[in-house]
Amino acid sequence: MSKPGLLLIGGATDVMLARMEAEFTLHKLAEIADFEAWASEHGASIEAVATNGHDGVPAHVMGACPNLKVASAYGVGYDAIDTSACVARGIKVSHTPNVLNAEVANTAILLMLAGFRNFMADEHHARSGNWEKESNAPLSRSPDDRVIGILGMGRIGQEIAERMQVFNPSVLYHTRSKKDLPYEYCGDLIAMAERADVLICITPGGPATEKLVNKQVLEALGPEGMLINVSRGSVVDEAALIETLQSGKLGSAGLDVFEKEPHIPDALKSMENVILLPHVGSATHETRAAMGKLTVDNLLQWKTDGTVLTPVPECAHL
Ligand code: NAP
Ligand code: 8YV
Questions:
Q1: Distance CA 235, CA 203 (A)
Q2: d(CA 292, CA 16)
Q3: Is the N-terminal amide bond of 262 cis, ω within 30° of 0?
Q4: Is 50 a pocket residue for ligand 2 (Cβ < 6 Å)?
Q5: Catalytic entry in 261, 263, 314, 317
């Protein structure tokens, strides 16, 4: 019996490739030179797509694959996938929730700790020889006993709140609906930012959260305040972020995500009170292996019985 066609969009590890190739006829988008020619020969054979949170499933790919039935995303965020279009066609979309909670929470906390303790500048002070040539590094601030506002209190937000308990924080959170959690709910994001020493963003991206962290929120956070963004670049108004940091109306920032990745504005690169990471929130061997396993498990489950293990909520009814 012939194997169903699977189109790989973006990269995959060797382990993922071996498992996919054993069960599907694999086509790699990155290796297709003439997409139209490929589509007319193979498009109709493609029943599954493996993709990621950045590349999604482009409209021209969906259009070229009339028999597409499942799209398995490597990552929990799926704002790059048009789920309405998938639901309309009965395409099941899956993602990789939970397996990356701990890693992304660690990333957010590491950014916060590095910010309070001024570790980037201190590292430079040590490495550059300035310690020997000049003097001791300036004092930094303690991460203990801070007010932490978390924007988005889902799987990862809760992991962040739990993991930072050793620093004795007062945790506030803002979401659209109050949760049954031992943290203080704030219905008003600006009011939460006014009270917080640190605002940690960990909502999904997409239109519902676009520029939720605007100039008013950043100014409310204030000259001593710290913004940590490990969600999506779209959640923060990047121009307002640059403006408030430059004017001193916002104290500092730790950023793993940006509006136009992989582009990072020069203004952000030039600021010493900003820590920049190249979207590595989940990027460890261990966590990426777990994400890769679940990505392929979803495809194999679909091949077995037409279901997926971890559908995105919009597709759970399919
Ligand atoms: P989740 O469990 O779905 O949690 C999302 C949270 O955001 C919920 O508490 C939700 O509460 C809140 N939310 C959604 N829309 C909102 C809005 N308009 N205003 C305020 N709050 C809103 O998702 P998760 O698994 O924690 O992942 C969150 C996101 O993190 C992903 O979608 C992805 O974008 C990002 N992420 C980034 C990395 C990285 O490498 N940097 C890695 C993994 C994930 P309500 O529905 O009650 O509002
Ligand atoms: C990954 C992420 O960088 O899961 C997410 O939403 O942003 C990260 O874990 C990405 O999705 C891998 O493609």
A1: 8
A2: 6
A3: yes
A4: no
A5: 261
